[in-house]
Specification:
The complex is a heterodimer.
Chain A lengths: L4 E3 L2 E4 L5 E6 L6 E7 L6 E7 L2 E5 L6 E5 L5 E5 L8 E8 L9 E2 L3 E5 L1
Parallel strand pairs in A: 2-11
Antiparallel strand pairs in A: 1-3, 3-8, 4-5, 4-9, 5-6, 7-8, 9-10, 9-11
Chain B lengths: L3 E2 L4 E5 L4 E7 L6 E7 L6 E7 L4 E4 L2 E6 L4 E6 L8 E8 L5 E3 L3 E6 L1
Parallel strand pairs in B: 2-11
Antiparallel strand pairs in B: 1-3, 3-8, 4-5, 4-9, 6-7, 7-8, 9-10, 9-11
Classes of the chains: A mainly beta, B mainly beta.
Chain lengths: ~110, ~110
């Protein structure tokens, strides 16, 4: 059973650029959630994807968007990067219907915007 | 609007003693709570959970207590070990089934 894999592990971008982060969900999981963890803070919910559609969104602007693919992997896209977007981005997969505690997290992508 | 709060950013405990990590929440509709542990350069890993219909759940050295009237939960680790040193996050499941995290408490267990 493979866990959640995120790529890349680290990334440096310039303000105004666009970035795509990737996540492969754990085998058997059909739902992917994305979280942003700023330094010294807890993870903040960005959005969740189930059956390739957005299934809930946190308080993030539209320049944060995502995709889920038929194999349940997912992408997080951020346009017009701002300095405050610098954070650890975490992906978590789960099986919808299994129970609310079945979240498996990846190790995250550390994004630095300069 | 911080619905889940961990007011202690750090805690230092001697090996073998009890560690108590606290968490408060504001939304009485939360019906499931979880604790996650996070090491540097790794994602959060699930530690223990509790349903709102219970007031205690125990798993080995880890016990979670829930006081619904006070909207407060705590994680007890006894005895504490140096390998327990990590950041601990309290989280709740909201009505949409999404995880809402607290800010985290960094636990340091000294030998």
């Amino acid at each position: 059973e493979t866990g959640v894999t995120q790529s890349p592990t680290h990334l440096i971008k310039t303000r105004g650029q666009q970035v795509t982060l990737r996540c492969s969900s754990q085998s058997g999981h059909n739902t992917v959630s994305w979280y942003q963890q700023a330094l010294g803070q807890g993870p903040q919910f960005i959005f969740q994807y189930y059956r390739e559609e957005e299934n809930g969104r946190g308080n993030f602007p539209p320049r944060f968007s995502g995709l889920q693919f038929p194999n349940y992997s997912s992408e997080l896209n951020v346009n017009a990067l701002e300095l405050d977007d610098s954070a650890l981005y975490l992906c978590a997969s789960s099986w919808r219907g299994q129970g609310n505690y079945g979240y498996t997290f990846g190790s995250g992508t550390r994004l630095t915007v300069v | 609007d911080q619905q889940v709060k961990q007011n202690s950013p750090s805690l230092s405990v001697q090996e073998g003693r009890i560690s108590i990590l606290n968490c408060d929440y504001t939304n009485s509709m939360f019906d499931y709570f979880l604790w996650y542990k996070k090491y540097p350069a790794e994602g959060p890993t699930f530690l223990i959970s509790i349903s709102s219909i219970k007031d205690k759940n125990e798993d080995g050295r880890f016990t979670v207590f829930l006081n619904k009237s006070a909207k407060h939960l705590s994680l007890h680790i006894v005895p504490s070990q140096p390998g327990d040193s990590a950041v601990y996050f309290c989280a709740a499941i909201n009505q949409g089934g999404k995880l809402i995290f607290g800010q985290g408490t960094e636990l340091s267990v000294k030998p």
